[in-house]
Amino acid sequence: MTEPAVRHLVLGVADRAAAVVVGITRVALVPARPLAALPPLRGFASARVLSLAASGAVVERRLLDAARRAVDSRAVDELADRLAASERAAALTARVLAGPLTDRIAAIVVEHALTSVQTEELVSRTLERPELERLIVVALDSPATDRIVRRVLASPGVELAVTRVLESELLDTATARFLESDEIERVIERIAHGPELRAAVAAQSAGLADLVADEVRDRSRSADDTAERLARSLVPRRWRHGGPAGAAGT
Amino acid sequence: MSPAPYAGLVTRAVAFVIDALIINAVSVILVACGALVLSVLFPEGKDFGLSGVLAGLGTLWLTGIVYFLAFWTLTGQTIGMRIMRLRVVDRAEGRPRLGRSVVRLIGMWLAAIPFMAGYVMILFDRRRQGLHDKLARTFVRYAA
Question: What are the extents of the domains in chain B?
Fold first, then answer.
């Protein structure tokens, strides 16, 4: 198991616990709704609803705090450290990645799972949930995440995985397909013919030409004075006309 | 505001090289156009001999004359002088008139005859004038 999986496990447990609590609450509220609609109980029920909502907010805050504490905890760090340093885990990862199964699984995922409508719906529904957004914010803001990511990136298992992916035929095929696709051709054509790119290239060329011209001008002006000094040093003093020519016009 | 310093030999030479490149390129294009027209008029491939060479040289000379006179008189700068930020002026610091430009152009040829001595004068003159500048009473200054 790699380090991000541990973090995901913690977050998953928190998510499931929250879902269970919400489910139980919903079931409990089913008989309460018609009762609360009765006139004598309406006022009492609305007060209870407000009170319950306040309690719910407290519970939610506590759940988020617990999740944050779990992510930041030393135990998770130590577990991540141990996993990153574990030779057995590295060997297991290497064995799994080296096997033919990885390519097949990746191909299946690309061909079927990622393109299916159900997956799209699932991803869409999951991403729309505010709880997920809050959890992601909490996880990303945590310094423990930064430490874990750094450790994961430094581990030999990840290096091996990246190497394996880069060397895989799947990547070659995907890249070849991507480059051969009509869409990429259209994108390149659009960028190449875009007025912004042309303006940028023209500005760059003009800037370079100006730079070269400025350099030539500076050098030739200093060469003017040098050539004059050299020429004047070659002739006797009495033949020379007046003072230095460069300052004559000023 | 004090006038800009007089321009030295090296900068003026670089500007002249740029002008010479432009004149030659234009001449080559003109001669090529003329040759294309003649190839249509004489499809059997007429040999013009010396007259063809003279026509080519004449085009080069004419292009040079028109180029320098037009630019000096109309803007006070050729393209090479513009790139090198130079300006030719008369004693009143204005653009030279056509007559003065003609004298300056003739002076340029005269300055080249004695082993470029007319141009070497620029190195020793207080106002950096060559023979052609002396004859036409013009000066070349660095443009702002």
Answer: 9-142
pLDDT digits (tens, 9 = 90+) for B60-82: 999 999 999 999 999 999 999 99
- Residues of B within an 8 Å Cβ radius of A: 2-11, 14, 83-85, 120, 123-128, 139, 141-142
Residue contact B124–A231, C-beta within 8 A: yes
Place of tokens 């002088």: B81
CB contact under 8 A, A221 and B142: yes
Nearest-Cα residue of chain A relative to residue B139: A249
Task: Collect all residues of chain B within an 8 Å Cβ-Cβ radius of residue A235.
Answer: 124
Q: How sure is the predictor about A81, in pLDDT bands with cuts at 50, 70 and 90?
A: confident
Find the helix or strand (DSSP H, E) in which B49 lies.
helix B49-74
